[in-house]
Design brief:
- Helices cover 43% and strands 10% of the residues.
- By secondary structure, the protein is α/β, with parallel strands linked by helices.
- The relative contact order is 0.12.
- It has a six-stranded mixed β-sheet with strand order 1-2-3-5-7-10, sandwiched between helices.
Length: 385
């Protein structure tokens, strides 16, 4: 999910193939330009375009279903799949959290999380090369559509973040899986603070596998879709286009502090030692954490601790429980109100402080659902957790 629900004045563009002068047009199957997701086929390779540029390509349940319904059979029939976002602003800024909060714990809101997480798992275990061109804003649900795939291509316009603790949620879409697997405690730092990474730093952090200038994205896309789609061809093409500015990672100087201060087992301990430091980094970090839901901070810490020992599917099952419980009893609704609806930027968190968030309160979010409501994937019938 994402805190972004911004509308920009951009005209919906036409067919992605028309824009990029793709080859062998007579062999392609086109979607209409007004569809929220476009699907094109070139040389037995598939191209998915998230087509809501006015909404920063935010995804909803209908779009999740469309992507899954095409991506699943393509795993057996296509050689390669490329996914990108329409326009120049965003790959995908996330999901429509406002609609989910307003709907409440309804079958439809639960269906969004359930089917989105199944799509994340499909991408994570995809048998064919899957290339996500994350050009522009990539947050929440957009991360779920990209980070679990084998190839993620950033540009100088890429803006990555998992900002869910600011809206009373947690870094879902498999955040509990990929964040604790980042270097040192970087993932925990990003998950708790919502810190934003841009451009080359998205690659240096390990979120992206490659970096390509936005001016060369069309050329890269054409090369991929003209290729055989084999792993060796894809590797060679991406290596050819890959760029490195030679500059240090934006958080390189802070990494020793991040690893040292975020190694503690409790959020309260992390904040205690940050206060003791009295450095510019510690002060800025405390300012970020002070904006977040205390409950979300504690839930996220446990989520990432558990996720470090789980595979992706196990993690998504855990996160589905968290998501369902958050629609029923959490700071989620208040966070969305303060940031997206009333926009007063003054959420009234409950509990208000880290100290007031009890262990039993955190436990409630991890409670199992009735067996019939647990998240299940297509290749299984019961939950193993």
């Amino acid at each position: 999910m994402s805190i972004l629900k911004v509308v920009v004045s951009r005209q919906i563009l036409g067919s992605s193939l028309a824009r990029t002068n793709m080859p062998t047009l007579s062999s392609c199957k086109f979607s209409t330009a007004t569809d929220t997701v476009l699907f094109d086929e070139v040389n037995n390779n598939g191209l998915i375009t998230i087509n809501r540029p006015k909404a920063l390509n935010a995804i909803n349940l209908d779009m999740v279903r469309k992507i899954y319904a095409k991506l699943k059979p393509w795993e057996d029939t296509k050689n390669l799949v490329v996914i990108k976002g329409a326009g120049e602003k965003a790959f995908c800024a996330g999901g429509d959290v406002r609609a989910i909060v307003e709907a409440g714990p309804t079958p439809e809101s639960k269906a969004f999380f359930r089917e989105e997480y199944k799509l994340n798992a499909l991408i994570g275990y995809y048998k064919k090369p899957y290339v996500a061109i994350i050009d522009g804003i990539t947050m929440g649900g957009g991360v779920g559509l990209s980070v679990h795939g084998k190839y993620r291509v950033a540009t100088e316009r890429t803006l990555f973040a998992m900002p869910e603790t600011a809206i009373g949620l947690f870094p879902d879409v498999g955040g509990g899986y990929f964040l604790p697997r980042m270097t040192g405690k970087l993932g925990l730092y990003l998950g708790l603070t919502g810190f934003r990474l841009k451009g080359q730093d998205v690659k240096k952090a390990g979120v992206a596998t490659h970096f390509v200038s936005s001016s060369k994205v069309e050329e890269l896309e054409k090369a991929l879709l003209e290729s055989s789609g084999s792993a060796s061809d894809v590797d060679a093409i991406l290596k050819k286009f890959d760029e490195d500015d030679g500059k240090p990672f934006v958080l390189e100087k802070e990494m020793s502090d991040i690893n040292r201060l975020f190694q503690h087992s409790r959020v309260s301990e992390i904040m205690h030692y940050l206060k003791e430091e009295e450095t510019e980094f510690s002060k800025n970090t405390l300012k970020l954490l002070a904006k977040m839901s205390p409950t979300s901070l504690k839930v996220t810490k446990r989520q990432l601790d558990y996720g470090a020992e789980m595979d992706l599917k196990e993690c998504l099952k855990m996160e589905y429980r968290l998501a369902v419980h958050h629609t029923e009893k959490s700071d989620f609704k208040e966070g969305v109100r303060a940031l997206l609806i009333d926009k007063d930027q003054n959420p009234k968190w409950n509990p208000r402080t880290i100290e007031e968030v009890t262990m039993s309160h955190v436990d409630d979010f991890f409670e199992k659902l009735p067996e019939s409501e647990e998240l299940k994937f297509d290749d299984e019938t019961t939950s193993k957790l």
